[in-house]
């Protein structure tokens, strides 16, 4: 603001202009501190979130599950979902099936290069320690027997 004013204005006038500018700006920035609802009956109410409600769970018996599975199998056209595509079709049906349709490994892995997981001395010690403790891990929570607690 000070750079836009003319050079002829002295420092006191310049400060007075700046004060007036700040006062006008602050008068427009006041927030309303009064809040009221004119008509509470017309106020829109938002429903609860879905994760706040507890759904009623009905466990179907085995007959209902069997009937539903049979109906789904009769309506669904995917009969061979447990098989690979090259076991159900002679040729790829779509262009997406062309990639990996006739999958065979390029080469067999040599057993010399297969590094299986082996136990180290720390693992062997932990297993013997657990076996000596009656099969219970030292980090498992222990439950007190109430009859043994009353006897002591």
TrEMBL record:
Q: Name one GO cellular component term.
A: ciliary base
Where in or outside the cell it occurs: the entry states: Cell projection, Cilium; Cytoplasm, Cytoskeleton
Instruction: Alphabetically list the UniProt keywords.
Output: Cell projection, Cytoplasm, Cytoskeleton
Protein family per UniProt: Belongs to the CFAP144 family.
> What's this protein's name?
Uncharacterized protein
Q: Which organism is it from?
A: [Myrmecia] bisecta
């Amino acid at each position: 603001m000070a750079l836009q004013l003319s050079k002829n204005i002295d420092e006191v006038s310049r400060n007075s202009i700046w004060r007036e500018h700040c006062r006008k700006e602050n008068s427009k920035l006041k927030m309303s501190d009064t809040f009221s609802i004119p008509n509470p009956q017309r106020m829109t109410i938002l429903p609860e979130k879905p994760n706040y409600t507890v759904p009623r769970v009905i466990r179907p018996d085995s007959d209902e599950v069997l009937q539903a599975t049979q109906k789904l199998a009769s309506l669904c056209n995917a009969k061979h979902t447990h098989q690979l595509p090259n076991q159900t079709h002679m040729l790829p049906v779509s262009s997406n099936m062309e990639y990996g349709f006739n999958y065979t490994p390029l080469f067999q892995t040599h057993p010399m290069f297969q590094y299986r997981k082996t136990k180290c001395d720390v693992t062997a010690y932990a297993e013997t320690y657990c076996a000596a403790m009656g099969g219970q891990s030292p980090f498992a929570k222990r439950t007190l027997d109430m009859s043994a607690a009353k006897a002591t």
